[in-house]
Amino acid sequence: MGERIVIVGGVAGGATAAARARRISEKAEITLVERGPYVSFANCGLPYYISGAIAKRSKLLLQTPEGFDARYGVKVLVDTEAMEIDRAGKRVRVKGPEGGSWIEYDKLILAQGGNPVMPPLPGADSPNVFKLWTVPDVDRIKAYLESAAPASALIAGGGFIGLEMAEAFRERGVTTTVVELLPRIMSTMDPEFGTMIAAKLEEKGVRVITGLGLKAILPATAGATASAEGKAELSDGSLVDAGIVLLSIGVRPELALAKAAGLAIGPSGGLEVDEELRTSDTSIWAAGDMVEVVHKVSGRKVRVPLAGPANRQGRIAASNALGMHMKYHGALGTSVFKAFDGVAASTGLSEKAAREAGFDVGAAVIYKDHHASYYPGGKELCLKLVYDRKSARLLGAQAFGGEGVEKRIDVLATALHGKMTLDDLAELDLAYAPPFSSANDPVNLVAFIGQNDLSGYAPTETAAALTAALASAAAGGPPALVLDVRNRNEYEEGHIAGSLNLPLDELRFSLDEVPKNMGIHVHCRSGFRSHLALRILKENGYADVVNVTGGFLAVLADGGFDLEQE
């Protein structure tokens, strides 16, 4: 007999650990305990089954208990919950369809993941209120949609699952509202990206409400017509149609078993593990959403509840449980999601997170077609780099657009892994042909902007920094002028209140209109013309000039400006 390996939890981390353990050892006795009815399923695919993009439910089921046993020789106990860990006796008490029993182990791997937060709201136990985390969850939602045919949906929470489900409900013809307590949806990204994502959702018919919470879920009025449905009351007392309600306000790590066993919990609230994913018990490893790991950029302990890291952690935990010494060096939190025909992605630290981590933060933004502008079909994307002004090291990146977004973020995730700088990014030799990119890829171009900022050749500021500068000037601080170098028709369609419009091609002949006794904040639509304008001003003796990175598009995404039209 080989070592007895017990794994608590299936799906991503646990199922991967079980398969890896068998590949390492044919002699090991491997038992996987899963509380739900499915050992391995495509959790990330659930919204797409609701929308109809994934037509067959069977496609979500990656492996069955019988299949796992046949292929890997792993004993799988589904509908079985681990109730207690006896660390001294090296055994786990489980409760399943046939009652309770103890399973002995030599090595134990915990991969219990997390659970959706279900707030104790009035009406939260109504039959039209759901969460989405498992296959039974998706079955219940789909059955309700087909039997009750609700005309409206309310989603509480503007994170990944909530926004993916907003698309799914709309694809089914359901009028959909997303409610987010924070000022912006997708709060893991910087605010301007939340604005862009919300605009895309609203373009597709999804109503987005931010800055308000969910207060109560109200049933349909007795005797109402078939078209009348339940309502949701928001924190300001307003009512929103809510024929079906999805609560997607967050996920907590599943730690009850670990805490009861006395395993150490880390500062971020996840199960504490070392770089080999070993817990405070030398015979217990852990992987997935329940653990805390090192963020590769900040060095801080964080929770990264994503499928990719969970799978890799499961592989490493199993390897080390069977005598290897593989190290898990941390995660970047790289993520991507689809919002209808829009794509949002990020990696590393946002600008806000980088400041909170203590970095001297710089940011560069570019709006650029995803391939050569002269080749038909180009889709404009917004790409933002966050970097350390002291070392020029890349700290993070975010992007939103139609096509080519995930490609750039994957490049930048690789750059983060390699601790690359702006200079490295500027020199990257990336694949180019007109249908795919430009001779200078957006990654190169946004790195150029950062280089120019740090060298002083073309200092930049974000739209948020411009807001702060104008507020300071209004309060008696250093005087500031916004110079808009777009064409007249662009300016007339909308501009920052009080800004001076001098189109780029007229600027050289109108320098007497630009004062030298105040800071000049120059912008165009996206940043390139204003870069040229900045260089003209610099060469003509203007010392205090800064380019608003991302231009007027960034101003619109920021949303904090008083705008005028003519």
Outline the biggest β-sheet: 5 strands, parallel
Q: How many discrete structural domains?
A: 4
Low-pLDDT parts are 223-227
Give the structural class: alpha/beta
Mean residue pLDDT? 95
Strand order of the largest sheet: 5-2-1-9-20
Question: What would CATH call the homologous superfamily of the largest domain?
Answer: FAD/NAD(P)-binding domain
**CATH class category label of the largest domain:** Alpha Beta
Assign the CATH topology of the largest domain.
FAD/NAD(P)-binding domain
Shape: globular
Which CATH-level-2 architecture of the largest domain? 3-Layer(bba) Sandwich
Number of H- or I-type helical stretches: 17
Cα end-to-end separation: 83 Å
Helix content: 25-40%
Q: How much is the radius of gyration in Å? A: 27 Å
**Strand content bin:** 25-35%
Give the strand tally.
34
Architecture overview:
With 566 residues, the chain is an alpha/beta fold. The protein contains 17 helices and 34 strands. The radius of gyration is 27 Å and the shape is globular. Helix 1 (13-24) packs parallel to helix 8 (307-321) and helix 6 packs across helix 17 (551-558). It folds into 4 domains: 4-114 and 252-321, FAD/NAD(P)-binding domain (3-Layer(bba) Sandwich); 129-249, FAD/NAD(P)-binding domain (3-Layer(bba) Sandwich), CATH 3.50.50.60; 341-445, 2-Layer Sandwich (Enolase-like, domain 1); 460-564, Rhodanese-like domain (Oxidized Rhodanese, domain 1), CATH 3.40.250. A hairpin with a 4-residue loop joins strand 6 (81-86) and strand 7 (91-96). The strands form 10 sheets. Strands 5-2-1-9-20 form a 5-stranded parallel β-sheet. The chain has a 5-stranded parallel β-sheet with strand order 11-18-12-13-14. A 5-stranded antiparallel β-sheet has the order 23-24-27-26-25, sandwiched between helices.
